């Protein structure tokens, strides 16, 4: 068990000595509101955990917060490291290895994304059914064991996807479903790239999540992921894209996703 896991285990044993931790949630840009939903939260900064990344993206708090959601103990990772920050697709590997060593089984990933579909407007929530790694980068490059040949046919857990759909229905929220295409960023896509993404079968585009899915499957974690739609892709609305727009719009769809995740955690964690 690594140093970060030892620190977290000690804090969690002190705060929640008789409770089992099964699921973790990674929050994307502008989605930090879920932290306020936790009961009896324990906050630990990434900077206090050896090996954890220091995100330089506004809208990412950079802390681990563990508490009760819907009566179940859950760990929330408020912020992530992105490939575009340091050119390292495996930046989140120490974090995910820590979760695995703590005995967690389920990872719920969230992100802010751009819609490629006219019928999926800003403020919507999309369950990621599959992804396209357009960046070509892979966090398992450099791994020397045969485990690097990780199968991705069922990257997103079918049972968890069904549970998320059921949770959305019970909340009365519309949950779209589609394919997420990962661009490296940090610049936004061009109109031509958005047209290409549509032709290739993408429904939403973004700059995160896919490396974490690959690493999670490599580690044996079960994964489910959702995008909060913050904008239409370049060229679809005539407006220029910006990170300020992402931060402004993400909380709108984020409130819907928070309701769905609260319901989901009560069912699976």
Task: Give a quick rundown of the structure.
The chain has helices at 3-15, 83-86, 93-101, 158-171, 191-200, 210-219, 243-268; strands spanning 23-27, 39-45, 63-69, 72-78, 106-115, 125-132, 176-182, 204-206, 222-232. It is built from seven helices and nine strands, in the order H-E-E-E-E-H-H-E-E-H-E-H-E-H-E-H.
Keywords, separated by commas or semicolons:
alpha/beta; 9 strands; globular
Structural summary, described in words:
- With 269 residues, the chain is of the alpha/beta class.
- It has one domain (3-268): Rossmann fold (3-Layer(aba) Sandwich), CATH 3.40.50.
- Helix content is 32%, strand content 24%.
- It has helices at residues 3-15, 83-86, 93-101, 158-171, 191-200, 210-219, 243-268; strands at 23-27, 39-45, 63-69, 72-78, 106-115, 125-132, 176-182, 204-206, 222-232.
- Strands 5-8-7-6-9 form a five-stranded mixed beta barrel.
- β6 (125-132), α4 (158-171) and β7 form a beta-alpha-beta unit.
- The longest helix has 26 residues, at 243-268.
- The chain is globular, with a radius of gyration of 17 Å.
């Amino acid at each position: 068990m690594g140093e970060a896991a030892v620190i977290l285990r000690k804090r969690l044993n002190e705060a929640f000595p008789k409770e089992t931790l099964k699921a973790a949630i990674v929050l994307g840009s502008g989605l930090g509101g879920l932290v306020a939903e936790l009961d009896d939260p324990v906050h630990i900064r990434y900077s206090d955990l050896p090996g954890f990344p220091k995100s330089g993206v506004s809208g990412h708090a950079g802390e681990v917060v563990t508490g009760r959601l819907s009566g179940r103990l859950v760990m929330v990772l408020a912020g992530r490291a992105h490939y575009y920050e340091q050119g390292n697709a495996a930046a989140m590997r120490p974090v995910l290895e820590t979760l695995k060593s703590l005995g967690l089984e389920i990872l719920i990933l969230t992100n802010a994304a751009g819609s490629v579909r006219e019928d999926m407007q800003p403020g919507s929530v999309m369950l990621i059914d599959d992804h396209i790694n357009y960046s070509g980068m892979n966090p398992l490059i450099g791994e020397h064991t045969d485990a690097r040949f990780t199968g991705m046919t069922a990257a997103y857990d079918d049972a968890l996807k069904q549970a998320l759909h059921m949770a959305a229905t019970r909340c009365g929220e519309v949950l779209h479903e589609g394919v997420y295409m990962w661009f490296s960023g940090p610049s936004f896509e061009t109109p031509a790239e958005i047209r290409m993404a549509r032709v290739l079968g993408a429904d939403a585009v973004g700059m995160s999540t896919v490396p974490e899915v690959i690493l999670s499957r490599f580690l044996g974690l079960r994964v489910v992921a959702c995008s909060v739609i913050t904008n239409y892709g370049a060229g679809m609305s005539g407006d220029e894209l910006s990170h300020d727009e992402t931060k402004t719009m993400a909380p709108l769809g984020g409130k819907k996703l928070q309701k769905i995740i609260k319901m989901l955690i009560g069912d699976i964690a």
